[in-house]
Design brief:
The structure is a homodimer of 331-residue chains.
Chain A (H helix, E strand, L loop, with lengths): L1 H17 L20 H12 L11 H4 L46 H10 L8 H9 L2 H11 L6 H13 L7 H6 L8 H12 L16 E3 L16 H4 L7 E3 L21 H13 L5 H11 L29
Antiparallel strand pairs in A: 1-2
């Protein structure tokens, strides 16, 4: 993690130094390297993120559905949970998720720490319980020692677990996208088509919701603003959290950072390609039918939002002890 | 990969230099660093090893059941396959598997290359087909380029896929175990109990099958030599390959390298702990009932066989293209 953070800091510094005159008036801002990371906590969180023993089956880890080899998502329409249950919603990317105003599509978790506890105990996802997860972790001497070292407490609790996972997730930002290089002043970072795509993205109104550092993630919006969205609605959206009928089919606007990697698109994963996603968004959110050429240019712009992917050593997990409760995948 | 191989070479060299007078008469020999690795091929193989798109569901990769965070196994009694099917047998570790005389518990694959094609097309495991896997890979420009660079051919075929995976797997050796340090002459690498355990391991006959560089992996033996093994036999063993009734319940002797990490034990994963495994093996293979103290010392010795785990950056996979066939987990 030291190496990762250093690399990011260096990348940020280099970028700032090279492109002295940046685009400061743009509605999108460059991704910043993570700040004030507790490295010990983040290293522990990385292990937990990759540990399938946090699931009942011993088979599903955070990384199963937020796969850091694949843009922090699972690239499935909806996720696979315990006993191969079909999830109700598309797995959002964990990349840059620290920049979201809230977590989950409906924003039901205020922050990453609150989010991290959800899937572990969700019967349709990891199907475990916080108590069982703690029993498992506490039985493993190397985890015991590492928790004690990081948190300075004798007793493990779920707050420590979710804090550590959240701390690791804060490191999962993706700076240095070509678009950010352009924002920072590197004029030739984008092609003419990509720049035209960005212009269309701004002028058509996409940027109204997809703006800021994460190019989204900072508001809830109705899916189907101009025209109703014809999806197979299993989720009701933000109204499930607020209880307000007006919030029905409202979802957190997803980040467009690394959107090239996070297919399929929308809360229901119904759009397989960026071309399809741009077409549907144009029609139902903006009342605009993009021509094929316009669509292609917007897609070209979107692909410039792919940043440096998190780079770290695959974590090695401490082995279970003789008294560690064993997973029960088939019970 | 360069870093990995260099690190291993350095580790090997250091060890050889420091401990000039080694134990050359022992029936177990130190793990050697991997030799003559084609780095380009191995890097490609690493991506394939981690790519769940080689399965029908898009959810199961080689690493799902041979998890390199967990000793190259899944630590489950039997593995979970497509649609949560329960596998018939315990997932053997991929660590040091290049040292096995043949692959799979029944040795039905001659080498790693032949093995690698099996799970992809097994309806109970990744449930894909070689044709579909190739269609998927060929549709992804970055994979196309990398295959062409490594193999110099215009057309992708399954031999290239399995060769690349096998090349990566050849790097997955675990040198520098404390026991190897002792073998190489570092007298204080083992405690007295561990040395006594090793002496018991040799004198009781365990070493008759568990010997050589991998401490096993180099012969087929009957499970239940002295006393019948009382397992829930779903697999018939080596006879499924040879057709000979004499080979019934014969299995490849598993490597004991990293055995601390590869629980549960036996082809059916029925033994949860090393204590249990040592007890059962003593009784049914050697006709010997180890005392609790003897058992504990043998277990202490076995834990000295944990070597340096493979250390590499989590691979980043190239994204699917618009025309890449999408996984079908729920069909």
């Amino acid at each position: 993690m030291k190496a990762l953070v250093s690399a990011m800091v260096v990348a940020g510094a280099t970028a700032a130094a090279s492109y002295a005159v940046g685009q400061t008036q743009e509605p999108i801002s460059p991704i910043q390297p993570p700040k004030q990371i507790n490295l010990g906590m983040s290293e522990l969180g990385k292990k937990l993120f990759f540990d399938p023993r946090l699931s009942k089956s011993g088979f599903i880890s955070c990384n199963s559905c937020h796969n850091l080899s694949m843009g922090g998502s699972d690239n499935l329409q909806t996720s696979i949970g315990d006993k191969w249950q079909q999830g109700p919603i598309n797995s959002p990317t964990v990349l840059n998720s620290s920049l979201n105003l809230a977590q989950f599509w409906d924003g039901r978790a205020a922050d990453l720490k609150e989010q991290a506890g959800g899937p572990i105990a969700n019967p349709g996802e990891m199907a475990f319980s916080h108590t069982l997860a703690l029993d498992m972790l506490a039985s493993i001497p190397a985890y015991q020692r590492e928790f004690k070292q990081v948190f300075g407490k004798d007793k493990l609790d779920i707050d420590q677990v979710t804090l550590a996972i959240a701390e690791f997730e804060k490191t999962l930002v993706t700076p240095n996208a070509r678009f950010d290089q352009w924002l920072l002043g590197k004029q030739d970072a984008l092609t003419q088509d990509e720049l035209t795509g960005y212009k269309l993205f701004k002028e058509s109104g996409c940027v109204g919701c997809h703006n800021g550092e994460a190019v989204g993630g900072n508001s809830f919006q109705k899916m189907g603003l101009v025209e109703p969205y014809k999806g197979n609605e299993k989720a009701e959206g933000r109204s499930a959290v607020t209880g307000k009928d007006a919030d029905r089919f409202n979802y957190k606007v997803p980040t467009l950072r690394n959107v090239e990697l996070t297919y399929p698109y929308f809360h229901d994963g119904a759009a397989n390609t960026l071309t399809e996603a741009v077409d549907v968004m144009g029609r139902i959110q903006l009342g605009k039918k993009f021509t094929q050429a316009e669509n292609a240019k917007i897609v070209a712009f979107l692909k410039t939002l792919t940043g440096d992917q998190p780079s770290f050593q695959l974590p090695i997990l401490p082995p279970s002890a003789d008294n560690t409760p064993r997973p029960t995948p088939f019970k």
